[in-house]
Amino acid sequence: MQPYRSTAPAGSELPVMIEPAQPGEPLLQAFSRLRGDIDALLPRIGGVLLRGFEVPSVEDFRRFAAAFGHPLLSYEFASTPRTAVSSGIYTSTEYPAHQHIPLHNEQAYTREWPMKIWFHCVTAAPQGGETPIADSRAIYRRMPDALRTRFEEGLLYVRNYGDFDVPWQDVFGTTNPRAVEAYCRRAGIRWQWKDDGGLRTEQHCQGTAVHPRTGEPVWFNQGHLFHVSNLPPEVRESLQELLPPEDLPRNVFYADGSAIEDAVFDQVRAVLAEETVIFPWHDGDVLMLDNMLAAHARTPFSGPRKVVVAMAESASDARAAGA
């Protein structure tokens, strides 16, 4: 086992690379041998890269992820477009190839999230398409004290579904408004049906969190993705001319509902950039992350690229287990 990276901040061990005992070793066959090392490495480092193993099919990847003992999760209350490949397996975010997807922890804009996330590179893009990662503990430590203190009070996420964002039918996986309301009620989400049939939701969520197993504080939110400053300037300008602030597709506010200045997220993005680890994908790679300890992203790419994702172990399960 060894750390592997192309670029990384000083002192980073992300990700630890694990290679086969012999060339062509099937990943599923190696599971019992690897399980102990992975269980020890994830809470310490945050992520492992399994490289050089035989992964003949997406089904083999699914079985490997499921072998860790938690049912694979469905992608609920989505914020980005994805397609289900099979039970518990999804495409990575289906944004256009030229777009960069910033670092984030999966579903950190909600109160429930997966503790484990796996990425399987079926086809590596000939150019770009990496999945950068970063240590959420290091991000937390590097954030300016005043900013970190304010975010520890939480964030308020506001979403308007429809023409300018993912439709609510796709986000909630239903066309039944009553089912949406039931989900929101369970999740502590405030909702409002608009006269045009659109939906607005508001939810107060964490800005930072404490890992239920390690007890360490982590930077854990998607404020920089939801904030209006994440939009290209020309898109932001046109939307703000067209829509009142409360009807923007998505935005984020301080816990008390007050606006967050652009300069705050300039600082956040600078810290994320300083903690970014980038390595090239190889066909067949499997990357396993502790979703609270490691954030992930996607770089622009050209040519064919196929990366599929699995998630497991909800945070509520981890907390209930007293981990």
From TrEMBL:
<dbReference type="InterPro" id="IPR042098">
    <property type="entry name" value="TauD-like_sf"/>
</dbReference>
<feature type="domain" description="TauD/TfdA-like">
    <location>
        <begin position="32"/>
        <end position="310"/>
    </location>
</feature>
<keyword id="KW-0223">Dioxygenase</keyword>
<keyword id="KW-0045">Antibiotic biosynthesis</keyword>
<dbReference type="GO" id="GO:0017000">
    <property type="term" value="P:antibiotic biosynthetic process"/>
</dbReference>
<dbReference type="Pfam" id="PF02668">
    <property type="entry name" value="TauD"/>
</dbReference>
<keyword id="KW-0560">Oxidoreductase</keyword>
<dbReference type="InterPro" id="IPR050411">
    <property type="entry name" value="AlphaKG_dependent_hydroxylases"/>
</dbReference>
<dbReference type="GO" id="GO:0016706">
    <property type="term" value="F:2-oxoglutarate-dependent dioxygenase activity"/>
</dbReference>
<dbReference type="InterPro" id="IPR003819">
    <property type="entry name" value="TauD/TfdA-like"/>
</dbReference>
<protein>
    <submittedName>
        <fullName>Taurine catabolism dioxygenase TauD, TfdA family protein 2</fullName>
    </submittedName>
</protein>
